[in-house]
Task: inverse folding
């Protein structure tokens, strides 16, 4: 459960545009490589690949016409 909560917090930070090193520190990962390994394990994607899949809700260009 803690692993999922930490990942969810990290995902929220990524969605807000935080830098990976800041995300790692704020979400409780020991360092950025730890965040990267955990992210890949949880999603199957790299953090960079995932950023494109988690659009910001405020991004009106992503809304259907």
Result:
């Amino acid at each position: 459960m803690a692993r999922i909560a930490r990942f969810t917090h990290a995902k929220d930070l990524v969605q807000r545009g935080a830098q990976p090193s800041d995300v790692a520190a704020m979400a409780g990962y020991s360092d950025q490589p730890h965040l990267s390994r955990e992210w890949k394990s949880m999603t199957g994607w790299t953090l960079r690949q995932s950023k494109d899949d988690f659009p910001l809700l405020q991004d009106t260009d992503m809304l259907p016409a």
Observations:
- Residues 44 and 60 are 27 Å apart (CA to CA).
- The chain is about 65% helix and 0% strand.
